[in-house]
Structures are given as structure tokens and as C-alpha cells.
Amino acid sequence: MYEFLISTSIVALAEMGDKTQLLALLLAARFRKPVPILIAILLATTINHGISAVLGQWITTVFSPEILLWILALGFIGMAIWMLIPDELGDETESINKWQKFGVFGATFILFFLAEIGDKTQIATVALAARFDSIFWVMCGTTVGMMLANAPAVFIGDKLADKLPISLIHKIGAAIFLVVGLSALVQHYFF
Predict the structure, then answer these.
(1) What Rg do the C-alpha atoms of the chain give, in angstroms?
(2) Alpha-carbon distance 44 to 52, whole Å?
(3) CA dist list (Å): 68 to 30, 57, 152, 156
(4) Please, are residues 123 and 76 in contact by the beta-carbon 8 Å criterion?
(5) Is the distance from CB of 121 to CB of 8 less than 8 angstroms?
(6) b/e per residue 119-154 (b: at least 16 CB within 10 A)
(7) CB-based contact 96:107 (threshold 8 Å)
(8) Secondary structure (3-state) at 66
(9) Which residues contact 52 (CB under 8 A, 6 or more apart)?
């Protein structure tokens, strides 16, 4: 359960102000159909984070524990730094128009799945699965974290985004990534 709670917390914080949360806002404004948007986000995230968690577990079989420790610690510290760099959505209107022929659900699923590839939350999922040796709980936690961040964006839209202290949320998320990265090193070398 610890793996689930940590994964949920880290990804929920990492997702605040992330490009996929901005995409959720844009999709909600465009289609105005929150239920199919949320179901598509849930499915795309579950598949993407499931693959990421499996990759994280596989990585533990490839590297020695010492090298893996350093990769994970530096990865979490790198994520802390990345959290302090705000994401920009760019012009996604063209992408939405391109995929709109697949309907609300199809367009949302495709856009969310593609937007998550190489995103902070996907990389965090890989690292968390490697750190905790738990595909299922990490995948569930990171997916719930994504939904906690994106469901309000879909239902409330721009009104909520303007009132959240995104900079503070990013700093808290960065601090958590930093603590997880440093604690891995401290636990290994001092305990």
C-alpha cells in the first residue's frame, strides 16, 4: 500500500500544470463531454503506465543493484529539477482537429497516450516501479494520481487552473522527488 500512496502522491503533484493536464483542459473546452474524456484518460493512462511499470521492473533485471541505485537516485533528483521547469502545451488545436474524426473518446485516448510518452509522469512510473518492485501498485497509484489531477481539470476547466498555486505545487513535487532520490542513497550507504 505504501507503493500505491507514494506513486499517487508523486504523480498527482507532478501532473499539476503538466502538458497533459493542460490537454485535459483543452479537450474539455472543445468537446464539453467530461465522461468520455475521463474514461479515455483513464484507459490511456492505465495502458501507458502499465507498460512503464513493466519497463521499470525489467530494468531491475538488467542492471546491478549498485548501478540501479545510482540510476534511480539520479533519476529522482533529475525529476525534482524537471518539476521546476513549467510545461507548455503548444498549439494542440491542430492535433485535436486531426484526431477529432475518432470522436471524443478516440481523440482523447490517442492524444493522451501520445502526450504521456516521455512525459514526467511516465518516467516517474518507470522509476517508481524499479524502486518499489511493484508493477501493480505503482501502476494503480500513478493512474490514480493522473486522475486526481485531471478530473478536476476536465470538470471545472480553466476556472480551477487559474486558482491553483501551480508554482508551489511544482516546488512541493520537486521536494518529494528530491527526498525520494536522496533517501535511496542514504538508505543504501548508511543503513
Answers:
(1) 17
(2) 12
(3) 43, 11, 36, 41
(4) no
(5) no
(6) bbbbbbbbbbbbbbebbebbbbbbbbbbbbbbbbbb
(7) yes
(8) helix
(9) 122, 123, 125, 126, 129, 139, 142
Cα dist. 110→31, 44, 150 in Å?
A: 15, 8, 16
- Mean pLDDT per 10-residue segment, the chain (191 residues): 92 80 79 90 96 92 84 76 65 63 88 85 88 92 94 72 59 72 75 67
Alpha helices in 1-134 (DSSP H): 2-15, 19-31, 34-62, 65-83, 93-99, 103-116, 120-132
Cell 530494468, located at residue: 59
Contacts of 43 by beta carbon, 8 Å cutoff, 6+ apart: 109
DSSP 3-state of 32: coil
Residue 134 and residue 121: Cα distance in Å, rounded? 16
Phi, psi of 55 (to 5 degrees): -60, -45
Q: What are phi and psi of 104, to 5 degrees?
A: -60, -50
The pTM of the full predicted model, rounded to 2 decimals, is 0.72
Distance CA 110, CA 102 (A): 9
